[in-house]
Each structure stands twice: as C-alpha cells, then as structure tokens.
Design goal:
It is a single chain. The protein has 7 helices and 20 strands. By secondary structure, it is α+β, with helices and mostly antiparallel strands. It folds into 2 domains: 318 residues, Endonuclease/exonuclease/phosphatase (Deoxyribonuclease I, Chain A, 4-Layer Sandwich); 79 residues, Immunoglobulins (Immunoglobulin-like), CATH 2.60.40.10. Helix 2 packs across helix 3 and helix 4 runs parallel beside helix 5. The protein is globular and about 70 Å long.
Amino acid sequence: MLYIIRFLAVIFILVGIYARIGQASTDTITVMVYNLLYYGINTSFCTSTNNNVDKKDINLRKIISHTQPDIFAVNELGRGEHNADRILHEVLNYNSDRSQPVTPEYSRATYTNTRNTTIVNMLYYRDDLFGIHHEAVISNEVRDINMYTLYVKDEFLIQGDTTFLTCIVAHLKAGSSNADQTTRLTEIQIAMAYISQNGPRGNLLFMGDFNMKSSYEQAYGLITYHPNEEIRFYDPIDKPGVWIDNPDMALYHTQSTRKYPVGCFVSGGMDDRFDQILVSRDVLEGNKGIQYVVDSYRTLGQDGQRLDESLIDPPNYSEPEEIIQALYDTSDHLPVLLDLYIGGRSTYAFEPVSLPMLNLSNPVSNELRLSLSAEEGSYTIRVLSVYGTIVLSDQIYLHPQMRSFTYDVSFVPAGLYIIQVIRGSELIETERLLKY
C-alpha cells in the first residue's frame, strides 16, 4: 500500500508539472526607448511656451496608447523625482475619470541622479508582467547609466526561479569633436567594465541615446565587439556603417524631427541614428526564456523618406496623422521599439513529449540536413544570423513519412547562425548552427 501511495504521489507531481508547462505559453512584449527632450524642465531655449509639459503629456498619452509598450525607457527626463512620477500618473496610468482604475497599470524604477545633472534616465514597466529584481547605477563624468533587472511575473514562480531581463539605459555625451568621442568611449569603458565585473549575464538590452554618427566610433565598437562575448551586444537590424546623412540609412534615422530651428528643437531634419536598442546574444538566440522577434525593430514615424527633411513634410503616412503630429510636437527624437518573445523556451526541468526534438548536421559546409520528432502538422524552419537577419526560411508539413529535410546552404557565409522551429506563432525549438 505504501508503494502505491508513493507511486500516485509521483504521478500527481508530474501531472502538475506538465499542467504548468501547458500553461506557460509564449507571450510577445514591446520595448520602447524615447528621448523626451527636456521633459518637465525649462531652460533659456526650452521654455514653458515651446516645451510645455502639459502639451507633452497629451501627446505622450496618444503615443503610448498607440504603441502600448510593456517596457518604456526614457532619456532627458527633467531633474526631480516629481517628473518621474508625473509621467507615471499623467501619461502611463492616466484616466480622465480619476475614480476609475487604469488597466494595464505601470510602475517605475528608482529615480537616480548621482551627478546632479539637468536630465536623467528612467524605466517604466507593466507591473502585471514584471517586477524589479535589482537596480544599479553606473556613475561616470557625464550622467548616470542605469541598469535595471526585471523578473517576469509568473503565478507558479518566485523571483529566484523565473526569467530575467536587464535593461541598461544610457544617454551618452553629445557632440562630434574628438573630445566628445573620447568622453563617450570613457563612458562605455566604465559601463562595460561594470557589467563585466558586477552585471548579470543572459538577457540584456543596451538602449538609449548614444549620440554616435557611425558604428566606426570606438565606443560603439567596444559595445558590439567586446572581448567578453557574454556581454557583447548586437544590432538586431545589422546596420553598421556611417549613419549620418546616409540615404541608405534613412529608414533608421531617429533625429531630428525638425528641418528648421524652432525654439527647443534641434534642426537639420532626419539624418542621425542616435537612438538604438542593442541586444545580447542570448536574446537573439532565445537561450534563456526571452528572444528577439525578427523584423520587429522599428523607428516610430520613420518611413525612409525623411532624409534631411522634417517628420511632417513631405506628408508622412507611416502612422495615423494624429500620431505623426504628436511625435513632431513632443521631441526632436523618434522612439525606437522592438518586440520580444517571453517564455518561448520552457524554464521547467520537465518538458512535454509533444515538443519537437531537432536533430541536425552540425557543423555544416554546403548541405544542412535535419530531422524533427514532433506532432504531425505545419512548421516553419528558419535560419538566422546572430544579428537576426533571416538567411533561410521554409514552410514544411511534418508527417510520419516525412521527418527529414535537406537544404543547400552553400551560398551562406561561414559563421555562427541560429536555427529555429516555429509552429503557428510559437517558437518551440532553437539551436545553434556553425557554417564553415
């Protein structure tokens, strides 16, 4: 009888684990970073007239309602905790009927300003999806670089047994002189040394206003080619080169929304890719429960027709007219967004037998051979570069007589790639692939 009881207990535990796995589905979340142009603070050039915070709030509500970010990082938040709270209450959690709750509801990170600067960074997040696990300040000679580690909330898990995402938010020194570039390099050297010695590994995003005109700047090279591959960051759209005034980069320019000088706003038209979100390799590959959604990286309001022109002239149809105008009136920068799969790869010790088993020839030269042990049905096989660029994609139908597939990859350059198996909208298997 004792053996029967123990046997049944094991069965109940396993059933519970499988049930929990069944409920752990892939969700997609949106991350957005936005330079708010002296939000809540006035200067001799950014006055209460040309940089009115009440008008900014109205415009930001429209932008947030349209994009619905789950994580919202900002640069150029005006000094003072009251400004951080104002965005939280008057934009993100705003409801004209103050007696009614807001859904979803956002929380914010801790306000920091160790250098006592005029403008600071901040991170906001949906508190039904995330909680703050750890915060750190990487202080340097210009302004704080903030590191926020979020944990994914799950009804079955606690903070020590869940998925983590670290958002590093920076606003680097502006300017094009050699001295400015040297300062940015120093900022990044301090930041990367801190991350290397003290920071988490795995799912990391490095985002903000980098103020760099090309990928050839030493500071950018240190982020994207750091000797320690565990903390190396990648551009999801793989667009190295000279960004400034380059027509080939027009679709990715984030600054400036104005062609001619107008009060607070920088002029010159759209010609710089200052604002970016870079991702760690684990985010590209989905190794630790979070993965970049291919082709989701975007600059809101950018249609690629803005080189040295304003956001609104010639007419811009990339977003609803109300959103384009709100972007134009809010800042001289555009927001950058990307999407992430959360929970695409199970963090539980046991996995259901219905999940596919991917077997492949590895490394490969000219021919990729793979087989799947999975339920009958339609799947997508996709091979991506480590930057997220799709180099091969195929729709297959799996059935008992067709479980093996062969692909010509002789045209693919040598290097490291990621191979994915997708069913419907769910990423269900990821493996590394070495091409020689």
